Amino acid sequence: MAQVLLALAAAWGALGVALGAFGAHALSSVLRPERLATFETGVQYHLVHAAAAAVAAVASERVRGARLSALLLLAGSVVFSSSLYALVATDLGLFGAIAPIGGAGMIGGWLVLAWSAWRTRSDPRRG
């Protein structure tokens, strides 16, 4: 399962780089500055959480709970970033209202990773 999560995180990261380049080169001249900023926020969270999910996926080999963390980080960033991309593409405020659901998933992923690492540190037999 760790390899699958790592592959998903890497693919999500590659897509984030591609979207970042697309935004910088194709969208910067056609979007209003506030919409471009929204798109860039989506890309920023996309890339940070792809990397974090990759770390959690690798850690899942030794830290019980890190697998759940990787899943939450990936799912949360997919929902969060995709909703911002959809908001920029459609200008429908509904998509902005979906972003906090993804944000909650990302926060959950970080908290699960912190708890899992702490628990493993406290009792290595549990890892």
Topology (SSEs and partners):
Layout: H1 2-27, H2 33-59, H3 66-90, H4 93-122
N-to-C SSE string, H for helix and E for strand: HHHH
Mean pLDDT: 94
Major sheet details:
none
- Taken from the alpha-carbon principal axes, the silhouette is elongated
- Taken together, the total number of domains comes to 1
List keywords for this structure.
single chain, 127 residues, mainly alpha, 85% helix, elongated
In summary, what is this structure?
The chain has 4 helices and no strands. It is mainly α and 127 residues long. Helix 1 runs antiparallel to helix 2 (33-59), helix 1 runs parallel beside helix 3 (66-90) and helix 2 runs antiparallel to helix 3 (66-90).
Provide a descriptive summary of the structure in words.
- By secondary structure, the protein is mainly alpha-helical.
- It has one domain (2-126).
- It has helices at 2-27, 33-59, 66-90, 93-122.
- α3 (66-90) runs antiparallel to α4 (93-122).
- The chain is elongated and about 55 Å long.
- The model has no long low-confidence stretch (mean pLDDT 94).
